[in-house]
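Reading a protein record of the kind used here takes only a little practice. An example makes this concrete, so a full record is given next.
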Amino acid sequence: MKPDLTLFTKKEKEEDLSLADALKNANLNSRYTFDSFVVGSSNDLAHAACVATAELPGEQYNPLYIYGGRTRKKTHLMQSVAHFIFTAKPACQDSLRYFRDFH
């Protein structure tokens, strides 16, 4: 038996699909979110800057530049910003660009 999908409007279904497609096409690791990031004394400033950037894209730390040695979780933070924007600020999805787009 098929589930009843009449609880959702056509627009809501399309928005859910577009978000899922956007996340899939962005090549983001689903484990790299702010919820799974471990904040410590060596990365607390970078974490705070990334959270501020995610909450106010284009207003805080524009551009955001993260520099650090190996195993400093730079990729995790950057992908956390992207995950946050994709889910919390869908209007900003079109403005997300990745470094490889700017070679």
